[in-house]
Design brief:
It is built from seven helices and twelve strands. With 241 residues, the chain is an alpha+beta fold. It has two domains: 128 residues, wza like fold (2-Layer Sandwich); 88 residues, Outer membrane lipoprotein wza fold like (Roll). The strands form three sheets. Strands 1, 2, 3, 4 and 7 form a five-stranded antiparallel beta sheet that branches. A five-stranded mixed beta sheet has the order 9-8-12-10-11, covered by helices on one side.
Length: 241
């Protein structure tokens, strides 16, 4: 699956002075959408997950391509690609870390960065290419691979997207790998068997883009190839009696 996409509608953000923005506070208020109540995953959602899925704002990731246009100082026009470390090299101001920023946050950052060299800088920000959110399911699932993450998705829902678990899967030890940086990796273990048995999905973890699900094999499935098939067998020791 190609993780890059060219948006149909070009997202343009015009940079303007914060004082002018304060005159119209409604234009700056993010549109929040309450999760459906009665759903355990929504009710028990981590505040960070809730903010991520309800803010409606895309956050920049490495390899995203951004086009900056300055109508009054075109010599600063540029197309930048976010580097693997999350930084972007900007003409006139140097390197800035832009990873995980929303477009409004990037707008404010660039306003502050260019203000010392451009009076009341005005620019247009166009997100040319971006990465679609995804998760990876591997191990003992029917269809391992990379899947597009569309909206709030829990571990059990993600396993369903991957075709469900195989007969040799260890339901009680589904592992979620979540990377925050090159140095920081979080590992969580989910007991899917217990959740289904108790019909309690309060521990059904909400996935984030880039998460990896790993389902290990059960111990019985590992030794099954060495076990004889059902039936009657001659004890080899009896041949020497």
């Amino acid at each position: 699956m190609n993780s890059r996409a060219i948006p149909i509608a070009i997202l343009c953000v015009s940079l303007y002075h914060p004082v002018r923005a304060a005159q119209n506070p409604q234009a700056q208020s993010p549109q929040y959408q309450e999760p459906v109540r009665g759903n355990a995953a929504a009710d028990d959602m981590d505040p960070a997950d809730f903010e991520f899925w309800t803010s409606g704002r895309y956050r920049l990731t490495p390899s995203d391509v951004i086009e900056l246009s300055f109508p009054f100082v075109p010599e600063f026009d540029q197309t930048i690609t976010i580097q693997p470390d999350g930084y972007a090299s900007l003409r006139g101001v140097g390197d800035l870390r832009v990873q995980s920023r929303t477009l409004p946050e990037l707008r404010q950052m660039l306003f502050e960065a260019y203000s010392p060299i451009i009076r009341d800088p005005v620019m247009t920000i166009v997100l040319k290419e971006f990465e679609k959110p995804y998760f990876v399911a591997t191990g003992e699932v029917q269809r391992p691979g990379k899947f597009e993450l569309r909206g709030a998705t829990t571990v059990t829902q993600a396993l369903a997207f991957a075709g469900g678990l195989t007969k040799s899967a260890k339901h009680s030890q589904v592992v979620v790998f979540r990377r925050y940086s090159n140095e920081l990796l979080e590992v969580k273990q989910i007991d899917v068997k217990k959740m289904f048995g108790s019909r309690d999905l309060s521990e059904d973890l909400m996935l984030r883009p880039g998460d990896t699900l790993f389902v290990p094999r059960s111990r019985m499935s590992q030794i099954a190839p060495f076990l004889p098939h059902p039936g009657l067998y001659l004890d080899p020791v009896s041949l020497f009696r």
